[in-house]
Amino acid sequence: MYESEITQFIRDLKAARPHLEEDQRKGRAIWWDKKPLNVTEKAEQDEARVPQQAYPYATK
Question: Which of 15, 33, 41, 55 could form a disulfide with 37, with the two C-beta atoms 3.0–4.6 Å apart?
Fold first, then answer.
């Protein structure tokens, strides 16, 4: 049965570092899995928003 080099690499990586998937879950929880904001927090963030320039990469 054919197994690509990428699949072999990932399998070897997971065998060498068994904690890798748990670390990935922790990282995802920190950066992506957030609780939804309540109405008050959302309103505060909307008020604090600074308007963006039309072209954000302008050097002026």
Answer: 41
